[in-house]
Structures
1.
Amino acid sequence: MTPKQPRLGPQSFAKHFNEALLLSALESGPKHGYQLALDIEERSEGRFGFKHGTLYPILHKLEKEGLIEGAWSDEGARGKRKRYQLTRDGELYLRDLRRAWKGFMGCFAEVIREEGS
Amino acid sequence: MSRFTQSLLDADARLNVPEPARSRILLELAADMEDLHREYLGRGLSADEADREVLEHFDLSDQALIELVQVHDSPLQRSLENLSGPVRGPWSRMLMVILALFVTVASGSLLFRGELYRDASGLVWILMPILGLGLVIAAGKGHRLFRGSDTWSPARRHSLLRLLGLAAAMIVVAGGGLWFELYRSALRIRAVPGEALIHLVGWLHMAAATLVIALSGALVLGFLWFFLEAQVRRQELAAAANLLEGV
């Protein structure tokens, strides 16, 4: 059972936008916080830059909700590092989020469509 | 000493989050800042340029820290921690167990009598499923806490608050329902004023039985919450001590 359902709308736009970026970046495997920001920046060719000040509150919130899991590991000389990975609930939520975004973008494109096109 | 120590100390002074969450946040920030710095050096930036880039990326502004505080320190969570804090010591826990036993022995025999449920209002059909749901949640949570992996996760606290919510729901349902039943009794008394005493005593009887069930259920859920919250806190502190070892 999915723990929560995304309800996409103008008020929750930024929240769901960031969640979708972070969760989909974690789909390819566990990552450190800074790697997530770099990954998103590269995949979007610089369009979606993530300030870490924004990144950590979202990551920690997703972790509290059980959508991602953060695990500390001792990486020898580098010391202790935290990596995040998607949980099963997170995978389900991402699937619903993608569906919600597709519907939202389709609706948006329809609303702003040029007259006569 | 990290090249970002000063920035982290500044952030530490403004990060109003209780321990051990604060140490974990700062440790994560410090580690990621170092790694990002290394990444930029690998991309050919000079050490000074890498420093600047990292500090620009890691926006440790007041607004960013406030957002972190909001995630880790809600007023409700802090109040509940204050509430459960005094029962974390071994003596307080023993006192709680004695109190729980006393309540169980004193009201236990009453609670297992069928007539209590017959005397109670029809609301008992709402109260019992609420209690049942609470017990299922507590059993699942207890199983995960005592038999689950050793890895600490903030999600462990997730759903614990539902126990308190369900306890509150039992009291609210019983309280609200009793006022409704009182209103119905008043209508009956108005229709047949000669039977006022019968209806009033009948209502008192039903109200007492319903309240015994609701309050006992709420108390059971409250005890379970205390017990599980204390276990979560113990695991959290153990994980934090393990993490900060050697830092």
2.
Amino acid sequence: MSKAQVQASARAMRLRRFSLWALPVALIAALALRGRETATNWWRASDLFPQPVRFDASAPLAGADWRVVSLQRVAERPDGTTVALLELEATVRDPAPFALLPCRIALADGTGQRWLPTFLAPTEVSRLPSRRNSQAKTCGPALASKPEAGAVLAIAESFLLPRAAFAQVDVVVSLAGGRPHYLRFARGS
Amino acid sequence: MRLLLQFIAILAAAGMLLGMQRSTPGYAEITGPLPASGRPGETIPARSFTLTVEKLVLAERIRYRAYGRDFERSTTGLWAVVVARLEARPESVSIGGALWRSTAGFRFEASQRVAGAPRLLTAGRIEPGLPARGILVFELPRDQAAGGTLLVSTARWPRLDSQARVSFAADAAESADVLDLNGLANE
């Protein structure tokens, strides 16, 4: 084999080795490019980082300051269900991120169980004198009303949960403009 | 000899690729429902709920009270009423998909003719820690009732989400001429 042939063979070998090492890099790069949008959407839609807040304190999220006004037991049903009413107050600071939908408000316990808002029958709402003439909206319509900076919104949501769980649940507030961060108003603190 | 070996290797590789291509499931199958299967009486854990089927009753007619009135519904086929218990975990859920798949492969959605009937599991929300016992009602042709499978999911068309599947033996159903849904749900 001539010297030129040996050099050509060594060059081809180097090229093949380079191609072999480049393959995993190219695969990872292709996956990252293809999945970037999906990963971004997942990041913006997930509740990943809880921000613990004292139950009687106020905390900023998605362009507003949030405060729990009350979490009350409205009624008890014979099957052990508690009907609960949560009232929140949001003071809008930046309307743009605040108006992004959807919003998620839930009650959560320490074991990972979450109760989502449910429709409350008017007969059960009227048990609370303070609610009879209330203008409070649920979270979605409150955000969709596109309030201006400085507006103070009353938000109310109702829940059905086991009697034993009521005393232990925290209030979770998650907004599209704040994710993956969310507020957790802890009952114990 | 070496040429022959290379030829055989290429043929084997082509055959393998063809086999892989033919056996690769389609997109709809890959992203379809994730089955969680069981039998009546078993508790079937799905991603966001558990399902326990107590019994299946086939009836000629059903009777129930709704909106302050008594209703009686007849059918040219059969009413299939499944009594089941659902528990949400870890989050509140609604049952958006309840299907009856017959042995012939036909799928029947839960009947809309019984709106307002008591304890319909497709009507309300299931909350964690508050298991719900209720009914699922299907209206089936007579030849599609025996040995079917109940499919239950939170979404009507579940994609990459659990679907609880309960297979019934051909002789698993109780039968009734007129079935009182009020009594069945509250018994």
